[in-house]
Structures are given as structure tokens and as C-alpha cells.
UniProtKB/TrEMBL annotation:
Cofactor section: pyridoxal 5'-phosphate
Cellular component terms per the entry's GO annotation: cytosol
EC number(s) given by UniProt: 2.6.1.-
Oligomer status and interactors: Homodimer.
Enzyme class of the recorded protein, top EC level: transferase
Annotated InterPro entries: Aminotransferase_I/II_large (IPR004839), Asp_trans (IPR000796), NHTrfase_class1_PyrdxlP-BS (IPR004838), PyrdxlP-dep_Trfase (IPR015424), PyrdxlP-dep_Trfase_major (IPR015421), PyrdxlP-dep_Trfase_small (IPR015422)
Protein name: Aminotransferase
Alphabetized PANTHER family for the sequence: AROMATIC-AMINO-ACID AMINOTRANSFERASE (PTHR11879:SF37), ASPARTATE AMINOTRANSFERASE (PTHR11879)
GO biological process, one term: L-phenylalanine biosynthetic process from chorismate via phenylpyruvate
Taxonomic path: Bacteria, Pseudomonadati, Pseudomonadota, Gammaproteobacteria, Moraxellales
Family from the record: Belongs to the class-I pyridoxal-phosphate-dependent aminotransferase family.
Signal sequence segment: none
């Protein structure tokens, strides 16, 4: 009966987690999945989250269904973080925001909404992008294409090609953009480039869909949201999916949000209703625990301040690892340029290793990276960085 069902070869990122867990090499290093580990190679529970958990006085209290759109405090947290606390667009009530099951859930609800209300739209993603972007949009029945982005030769954005490509797109085509900490390359647009790109988005009446999963890991909370706020200032309609997995270290709680910026309050109300209906059709309503933590941390002034400090602590440790790896590799592999390690932003670095070199790192050294050469820099620490640098130098020699 099920003979026709295709074999699933596994996910290129999540599959690595399983391989890593099963590897008996005592020196193994996990630089695959985008997860932040601290200097002791431990997945941190943020102090602000610990306090929030304590404030949820009775963790075995009753669990009512949440509304389809999630907790009001969770939704407000998304809006304040993305658009700025006092943003005019929020005062004008032009943003429809729902709490979602992680950033992936936000993308899925957004993609289903787009397929229902803009059925002609195609979605264009950066080349390369996070693989699940393609899977989620295609899974919602939307045709996905790629726009030029990363230039292997220079390690920068192919900006002229990108602009020329956007100029060929049709009204209501969706362009999926990474406002900061591009996944997988770590190569971001400058603010001037965003200004130019968003002009084209406006002229061609494209629908920008910004996926922000690493806010606070690039420059800072506000600069990382530059593209979002610029699009709002320009009066563009806009979809934003956000995730609290990384910046609250709440991966397994699956907490995120989907916000749709609309031209008027009346349209925002309609969109909000349809987002709720979309949720109802997929999973009815979000789970409650993670949403309660988000609500408490983000809406309490002292906890929020503590949270920002903790995120910047993670950001700074990643930056320090980038610097250290660069300096070690420069000595070990003279003549090769490792500047990319410090010019790229966020958790990820595109190393330019070949799939064969990545495979050798795994099989010979127990070092796990994604086969497209993406390294999660947040998996490096003082204890493993020399081991990783030596191994990289070894595979780069041949
Ligand atoms: C990643 O890119 O590694 C993370 O976003 C985790 C995932 O779901 O792929």
C-alpha cells in the first residue's frame, strides 16, 4: 500500500544533529545546527528566562487553550522588538501580529496566507538560503525561484545582479529577505544597499517577506531591524516572521511570531482574522508555556534589559570566536584569506570548504558542518577552537 511513498533522506541540518549525537569520537565538535552553546559547550538557560520561569508560580497549573493568535503579551513583544516600542505603525494599528510555533510556524502560516490570497505570486529566495524556506513555501503550493545573492569569488553580495533580477519580477511576487545575519552565508546587505533594494521592491510592487531569526546577534537589536523599519517608513506592505529560539535560547519551546504590516487599520483587522483562520486550519492555537516566558521577559523593563545584555553577551562571544579562529588559521594556512570570518555576521560563517572537505572534517575529526560549508561559529569555544583550526588547516592543505 505504501510502496509508492518516497524515501526521506533526512534533513541536511537536523540530520547532522542525529549523526553528531551518535558519534563516539570524544573530540567531536558540533558546528552544524544553528544553536548557541556557551564557552563550556552548554546550551544556556538565560538568567532572565530562569526568573520568568520562577514567576510562572505554579508550573502544573491548568492549561486552557490559548486564543488562535496566542497571548497578547507575546504578540506585543514581537511588535515592540521588530518595529520599535513607540513606532507610529503600531499606534496606527496597522500591524496584524500572531504568536506562532517558532519562526518556521510563522513562515508556514504566512506562506499559506499568501497562497490563499495571492495565488499568482511566486516566491523568490536568496541563492543560497536556509533550505527550509524553499520547503515551506513549496509545501504551501507556491512556486519558488532564486535571486542572485552570494558571490563565491568575492565573498560578498552580487548586488548589481540582485537589483537587476528584482527589476524583472512581477507585481505581487514575494521576495524572501534576511534583515540580518544571513543564513547560511553570514553576508548581509549594508543599510545603503537595503535602501536601494527596497526602492526596487516598491517600484515593482513586490511583496517583501522578511525572516528574522537572529535579531541581536548582528550589530544590535535596532540596527538588526533596519530593513524592517525602513520598509515600514517607506509605506511598504510587509510580512515579518521572527523567532525567539536563538535570542531567548528557547529552541524547543517553539516561540516566534508573524506580523503583517498593512496600509490601513481596517485591512490589518481583515488580515488578522485570516491569519487566525489559517492557524485554526493547521494547529488551532499555539502552546502556552513558551509564550508565557516571552510575555514575562519581554514586557518587564528590568528583565528586558537583562535579556538584551545576555543576547549581547552571546553575540560578543561569537565575535571573539571569529577573531580567534581567523588568527589561528592565518598562521596555520598562510596565503589563504580568512577575512570572511570577521566580516560575516551572526551565528554562521560560509567557509568556502568543498563538500569533500566538509565530509573529511566529519569522518576524520568528528567536526560537523553543513555540506554547503556553513559553520555555526557559536559551537566554537576555547577548548575546541585549536582542534577545529588544525583540522581545517589539514583538509585545506590537500
Ligand atoms: C539552522 O539553520 O541551523 C537553524 O535555523 C535550525 C534549523 O531548523 O534548521
Amino acid at each position: 500500500m505504501f510502496e509508492r511513498v518516497d524515501f526521506y533522506a533526512g534533513d541536511p541540518i537536523l540530520g547532522l544533529m542525529v549523526e553528531y549525537a551518535n558519534d563516539s569520537n570524544p573530540n567531536k565538535v558540533n558546528l552544524g545546527v544553528g544553536v548557541y552553546y556557551d564557552e563550556n559547550n552548554v546550551l544556556p538557560v538565560l538568567e532572565c528566562v530562569k526568573t520568568a520561569e520562577q514567576r510562572i508560580a505554579d508550573p502544573i497549573s491548568a492549561r486552557p487553550y490559548l486564543p488562535m493568535e496566542g497571548l497578547p503579551g507575546h504578540r506585543k513583544a514581537c511588535q515592540d522588538l521588530l518595529f520599535g516600542k513607540d513606532a507610529q505603525v503600531l499606534q496606527d494599528k496597522r500591524v496584524a501580529t500572531i504568536a506562532t510555533i517558532g519562526g518556521s510556524g510563522a513562515l508556514k502560516v504566512g506562506a499559506d496566507f499568501i497562497n490563499a490570497w495571492f495565488p499568482q505570486a511566486k516566491c523568490y529566495v536568496s541563492d543560497p538560503t536556509w533550505g527550509n524556506h524553499i520547503s515551506i513555501f513549496e509545501g504551501s503550493g507556491i512556486e519558488v525561484g532564486k535571486y542572485p545573492y552570494y558571490d563565491k569569488a568575492t565573498g560578498t553580495v552580487k548586488f548589481d545582479e540582485l537589483i537587476a533580477f528584482f527589476n524583472t519580477l512581477n507585481k505581487d511576487d514575494v521576495v524572501l529577505l534576511h534583515p540580518c545575519c544571513h543564513n547560511p552565508t553570514g553576508v548581509d546587505l549594508t543599510q545603503a544597499q537595503w535602501d536601494e533594494l527596497l526602492q526596487v521592491v516598491q517600484q515593482r510592487e513586490l511583496i517583501p517577506f522578511m525572516d528574522i531569526a537572529y535579531q541581536g546577534f548582528g550589530e544590535d537589536m535596532d540596527s538588526d531591524a533596519y530593513a524592517i523599519r525602513k520598509a515600514v517608513d517607506m509605506g511598504l506592505p510587509l510580512f515579518v516572521s521572527n523567532s525567539f529560539s536563538k535570542n531567548l535560547s528557547l529552541y524547543g519551546e517553539r516561540v516566534g511570531g508573524l506580523s503583517v504590516v498593512c496600509p490601513t487599520e481596517e485591512e490589518a483587522e481583515r488580515v488578522f482574522g485570516q491569519l487566525k483562520f489559517t492557524v485554526r486550519r493547521i494547529y488551532s492555537s499555539p502552546p502556552s508555556h513558551g509564550g508565557r516566558v516571552v510575555d514575562i521577559v519581554m514586557n518587564d523593563e528590568a528583565l528586558h534589559k537583562q535579556w538584551v545584555g545576555e543576547v549581547y553577551g552571546m553575540r560578543d562571544r561569537i565575535k571573539a570566536m571569529r577573531l580567534k579562529l581567523k588568527s589561528v588559521l592565518e598562521t596555520k594556512v598562510p596565503g589563504r584569506n580568512f577575512d570572511y570570518l570577521t566580516t560575516q555576521n551572526g551565528m554562521f560563517s560560509f567557509t568556502g570548504l568543498t563538500p569533500e572537505q566538509v565530509e573529511r572534517l566529519k569522518t576524520e575529526f568528528g567536526i560537523y558542518m553543513v555540506s554547503n560549508s556553513r559553520m555555526c561559529v557559536a559551537g566554537l569555544n576555547g577548548n575546541n577552537i585549536d582542534y577545529v583550526a588544525n583540522a581545517m588547516a589539514e583538509v585545506l592543505k590537500d
